DNA sequence: CGCGACGTTGATTTGCCTCAACGATTGTGG
DNA sequence: CCACAATCGTTGAGGCAAATCAACGTCGCG
């Protein structure tokens, strides 16, 4: 258990220095939670009380539109934070589903505890600023990609930037994340495999 | 001039409290800069040395793809921050153009000065964390909209959420921001005007 | 006034979606 | 452990929203 917990501290230390005293104050604010495959962390309408750090497994966040179509916003694996962030911050009803795609283990913190932790361990304020800076940069890039790339190029791009991640999610989740249908993604993969040629399968993305 | 400068302090105070001593330390770190209509704040390949706060005017950030097509990432008016954030943070070559659409006035800060300011005025660390939280939320919503809404609905959505902003930019910039061509936006507007009926022009978005 | 950039409108094309049927794979209860 | 159902991925046929291409009107500016 504890060796998993230290994933969080190790992760934070990639961004900000922590004294060992500060380090010890972090973990006690978190509770570990397991979530079964296909279990839901949150559903629309509920209030998202926790910010959750993934120490094992994978999850996705998505919405459903009025035609019951799912749209995947995030594909999360180890060292990602998941929450309905708007709901967590403002106590408003959540907009997203968050579902475990693999059996997962999370470290969760409630908002009052997080605020208290900011005061006890000031570098965390900086950590979360850096975290949100990076998230902002990634989303900016994703928007640029959605505006300027074809479905095919978005897929190629994703595979190159996050190798290994695609393999952990059903293809339809990846398709939705990339803004296309499962049918389109299937055709794109077929196209790539064909043009690579039967002899040179070393580009296989499986 | 100073009355414009105080727009920044006033803005920051919407997010975090500042003592008057702290308040006085903020503005001296910034330099005011005017930029003519169609002037460029930054171009791809340059290093973005400043984070710029818009106190007057409007700007857009965009990229061009290999087919010379422009793709607008941001439409900025008063109280927005503009920069090639990645370049600003890491000193890497900028990816974006930033162009003044109207004659504009900015308050600029360099990165070392910003870091120094964090230390002098700790609440700014919190301010920028909150700022990036909000930017993150807005980008998330934009991605959801791009995934789940038609071009028509994205336009309606934008007009409702940012009334007045559209009028300050050429239609083709708005179209690009919304992920469609100028032709498509023109047809959408025509469609909306027609279905509103010739007698009831009170929904006109001009 | 005349040039150039912008918006509009029409004709045509296209990338991706929808619908549908069929394999492949997974998971589950008997 | 097998049989069956359910889910997922693949493939094909047809359709549609939006893009492209192109011509014309309009406005602002030198």
Structural features, described:
Chain A is α+β, with helices and mostly antiparallel strands and 206 residues long. The first copy, chain A, has a domain of 119 residues: Jelly Rolls (Sandwich), CATH 2.60.120.10. Chain A is built from eight helices and eight strands, in the order ααββββββαββααααα. In chain A, the strands form two sheets. A four-stranded antiparallel beta sheet of chain A has the order 1-8-3-6. In chain A, a hairpin with a 5-residue loop joins strand 4 and strand 5. In chain A, helix 7 packs across helix 8. The C terminus of chain A is likely disordered. The structure holds a DNA duplex (30 and 30 nucleotides).
Structural class of chain A: alpha+beta
Give the CATH level 1 class of one domain in chain A: Mainly Beta
Order of helices and strands of chain A: HHEEEEEEHEEHHHHH
For the record, the CATH architecture of one domain in chain A stands as Sandwich
- The coarse silhouette of chain A is globular
Classify the fold: give the CATH topology of one domain in chain A. Answer: Jelly Rolls
Distance between the termini of chain A: 31 Å
Low-confidence stretches of chain A: 201-206
| Fourth-tier CATH superfamily name of one domain in chain A | Jelly Rolls
């Amino acid at each position: 258990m504890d060796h998993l917990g230290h994933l969080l501290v190790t992760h934070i230390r990639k961004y900000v220095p922590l004294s060992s005293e500060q380090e010890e104050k972090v973990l006690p604010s978190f509770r570990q939670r397991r979530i079964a495959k296909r279990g839901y962390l949150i559903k629309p309408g509920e209030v998202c009380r926790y910010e959750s750090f993934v120490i094992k497994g994978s999850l996705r966040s998505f919405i459903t539109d009025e035609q019951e179509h799912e749209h995947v916003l995030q594909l999360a694996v180890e060292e990602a934070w998941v929450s309905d962030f708007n709901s967590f911050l403002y106590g408003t009803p959540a907009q997203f589903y968050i579902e475990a795609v693999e059996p997962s283990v999370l470290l969760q913190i409630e908002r009052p505890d997080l605020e208290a932790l900011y005061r006890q361990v000031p570098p965390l304020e900086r950590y979360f600023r850096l975290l949100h800076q990076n998230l902002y940069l990634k989303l900016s890039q994703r928007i640029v990609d959605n505006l300027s790339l074809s479905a095919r190029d978005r897929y190629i791009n994703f595979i190159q930037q996050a190798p290994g991640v695609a393999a952990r999610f059903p293809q339809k989740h990846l398709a939705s994340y990339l803004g296309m249908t499962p049918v389109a993604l299937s055709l794109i993969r077929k196209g790539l495999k064909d043009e690579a040629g039967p002899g040179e399968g070393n580009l296989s993305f499986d």
